[in-house]
Amino acid sequence: MSLLVVGSVAFDSVKTPFGEVEDVLGGSATFFSTSASYFTDVRLVAAVGEDFPERHVNFLKMREIDVTGLERAKGKTFRWKGQYGYALNEAETLDTQLNVFESFRPDIPDQYKDSDVVFLANIDPDLQRDVLRQVDKPRLVAADTMNFWIEGKRESLMETLKLVDILLINDGEARQLTGEHNLVKAARAIFSMGPSTLVIKRGEYGVLLFHGDAVFAAPAYPLEDVFDPTGAGDTFAGGFMGYITSIMDFKESVVRRATVMGSVMASFNVEDFSLNRIRDLDYKEIEGRYREFKTLAHFDDI
Amino acid sequence: MSLLVVGSVAFDSVKTPFGEVEDVLGGSATFFSTSASYFTDVRLVAAVGEDFPERHVNFLKMREIDVTGLERAKGKTFRWKGQYGYALNEAETLDTQLNVFESFRPDIPDQYKDSDVVFLANIDPDLQRDVLRQVDKPRLVAADTMNFWIEGKRESLMETLKLVDILLINDGEARQLTGEHNLVKAARAIFSMGPSTLVIKRGEYGVLLFHGDAVFAAPAYPLEDVFDPTGAGDTFAGGFMGYITSIMDFKESVVRRATVMGSVMASFNVEDFSLNRIRDLDYKEIEGRYREFKTLAHFDDI
To answer: Which of A66, A186, A240, B267 has its CA 20 to 30 A from that of B41?
Structure first.
């Protein structure tokens, strides 16, 4: 089974209370595909500039990610600069240089068109639909979005949501999208827009999954050393979608396990800058952390 | 087995986006003892004024709470007035009239002195130690506190913490008490102050339990209608301590179940103003909600 992701590949400069890095590998499609590569075949579509070093491409290849769709465009690679305080729950963006990402028009290679599952990372909702027009008939479509599109391109986003099975957003975005503060009500409103599954990411508080009538609360792992939350949401999405694609079943028990698998991958990712911690995990480490989540959430019947 | 609680009995005036009530029954000891009364024998110590109606005392008696220690003092009952916005996560205090609570000196009745378990609700840490001097030898001591004492009476609070087995506080208080933003580090710091169990209440995000080396994350139930969060923390503590006292075992599996039981009781409490929702629950309702928590948190092994 194959999983197509369309999003960004970027250089991140990040400052946290624990350190600082400059122009390290980042971007939604990078975190997503690296995380998903532990579970399934991943096909990547993104654009980078002429300044993008071959070693990063080789890293993606090493993870057996198909980079046929990684377009090298004239100009510089998308750059993001941000910093976090001790709370680590929200980045303050210091600088954004869209560069080649500004004129990015996803061009889906022929050999990607039969992808079983599509993940539309956080890009312009017009482009998200453009991707869906180019693929044959995926069995599952998932998408992320953000406040920028909810505010600025609401109508287009609504058109995209009609085509989306799974929406992955954070709690603030769910509230903004629906005008409902209560997340149960927000979930119902989002279901009426198209998706039948909603994943609400709540950072250090874990994830709330709405899947049909079922609700599942996955905790976040209380880590002693959270180093850098950049990419945690995309890493979650990669583990979540990668696990679902590997099973290619969409029943509730699978989606619950996938939610924990996404949380497992995100818990690794925040332990170091960039993709350092998830570059080369042993599958045994992933299984071990999954069991720790199991222990973390376990309680007996009364 | 018997559970002694020392705290406040009060009149609350509360405004939420969903309604408004005036001078309704409230106070930490009231929420705590009502919640705990579903699980064990409760003995209450608090002070009320001459304006406190007999029907409230009769309600507590109806719940089989021992009110021998409910002192009726000259003056008026403690009054608190607050309001909540749509986020419902933090009350804005509009008015506090301590009244008889200002000169409250807990006087533990002789027949209470053999209590097995003691819960020191959020009162002056000097008074918390004063209570412990008056009881024989409880098998378990639990306490709550707040930012007011952490800032203003730190040394006294530290003396109290040496005598406390279980500390129940919210995440902001844990951070303020220890100067550690990371809750794993905060838990370790609190363990070095005395307690061997730490319950961190996180409102709509549930509860994080540190018990020796074990960590347990209990979700909060995603309710569609949260009406009034007043008393949720004390109602949690009542369910938690009441359940532990009923089993009188302090092993990890019991404390995990107690954490969920506290969350169950709190989830009922927020569904209506004052104690309206937890005045007269059917035990079957409690068991049913516990099973819903079980479903909410369940996922299979991979």
So the answer is: B267
